[in-house]
Amino acid sequence: MRKANDFYPTESAVTKQLLKRVSIAGTVLEPCAGNGAIASVIDKHEGIDVVYTNDINPAWICHCHADATKPEIWRGWQEANQCDWVVTNPPFNQAALILPLAYEAATVGVAFLLRLSYLEPAGNRGEWLRSHKTKLTNLIILGQPRPSFTGNGKTDSCTVAWMVWRKEARTDTIIDFVTDWKQ
Known about the structure:
- This protein has a 7-stranded mixed β-sheet, sandwiched between helices.
- The chain contains 5 helices and 7 strands, in the order αβαβαβαβαβββ.
- Strand 3 (about 85-90), helix 4 (about 95-105) and strand 4 (about 110-115) form a beta-alpha-beta unit.
- Helices cover about 25% and strands about 20% of the residues.
- It has helices at about 10-20, 35-45, 70-80, 95-105, 125-130, and strands at about 25-30, 50-55, 85-90, 110-115, 135-140, 160-165, 175-180.
- By secondary structure, it is of the alpha/beta class.
- It has a single domain (about 5-180), classed as Vaccinia Virus protein VP39 (Rossmann fold, 3-Layer(aba) Sandwich).
- The longest helix is centred in the middle third of the chain and has 11 residues, at about 95-105.
C-alpha cells in the first residue's frame, strides 16, 4: 500500500551525492518538499541563495501548498520567484506531469530523483524524453545498498538515480555509478 501523497522522504546522503557531482547554485525550488529533507541539505550548500519549498500537504511547513502538477501554479512561481534550479524527489506517479513544468520554469536546470525505469520512453513521457535527450547532462545511479524511503531502513527492488537536465545542451551525459553513497 502506497503512502499518502506518495510521501517517501529522501535520506540526506542521497542529496549530498547530487551536490558532490552537480554544481547547483542560486535560487532553488523544491516543489514536492514534504518534510524538507532535500531542501534542508541544499539550503546548507555553498552557493545557494535561497531554497523555496512547496508541498501539496498543508501539514508540512513550506513556503506554499500548491499542486505541482498544475501549469498555472508554475506560471505563478515564475512570476514571483525566478528559480535557477528545481530539485525534487517527486511522487513517481506524478513525475511525468511535474518534470516538463519544472524544466520550463528553471533558468539553469532540474535534478529529479527518480526510479531508473523512468528513462523508459513510456507513453506519458516518451516524447519529452526524446526531445530533451541532449539536455540530460547527469545520471547519478545510486547502487547497493539501495536508498531506503521507508523510514525503517528497508528498501524495495527499484534502483533510483538523480537525473539532471540542463537548458544548455551537451553532446554527452555524465553517468556516475555510486556504490558508496552513504559516506
